[in-house]
Amino acid sequence: MSNLARKLQQQQQQQSHVQPQPKHEPSKKASPGRLTPVEKILGLLFAVFLTVLSAQLISSSAGLYQMNKDIGQLETEIMQQERKNQDLENQVSELSRYERIMAKAKELGLKLDENNVKLVEGH
């Protein structure tokens, strides 16, 4: 039996030493430091998208700035025109006072005839 045991032991040792080692085939996947063409295209598309989006944002901001500037100028013009209108209204009030009209009429040689006065309703 000792022969038989030795043969069995030798066979087991040979089997353990002869185990096929897995072959290392170069993988088709990219190495960790390299990008695949699809990843490069996606990266390029993303960069183009960000560039277009940034340009549109800058353009919109410039448009809003210009519009706000125009609005400010218009508000200034409106305030100036309102001041002019108020000054003109004050002048109309001043020039249409009864005392001034009577003084101007006397200066021009006109006389007040109470019988010939007609009441005019104004606004």
What does this structure look like?
69% of the residues lie in helices and 0% in strands. It is rod-shaped, with a radius of gyration of 52 Å. The longest helix has 59 residues, at 37-95. The mean pLDDT is 85. The protein is built from three helices and no strands. It is mainly α and 123 residues long.
What is the helix fraction of residues, given as a range?
A: 55-70%
Structural class: mainly alpha
The low-pLDDT segments are: none
Using the alpha-carbon principal axes, give the shape. Answer: rod-shaped
Determine the N-to-C terminus distance: 140 Å
N-to-C order of helices and strands: HHH
- Rounded mean pLDDT is 85
Rg measurement, Å? 52 Å
- The portion of residues forming beta strands comes to under 5%
What is the number of helices? 3
Total beta-strand segments: 0
- How is the quaternary structure best described? single chain
The largest sheet is: none
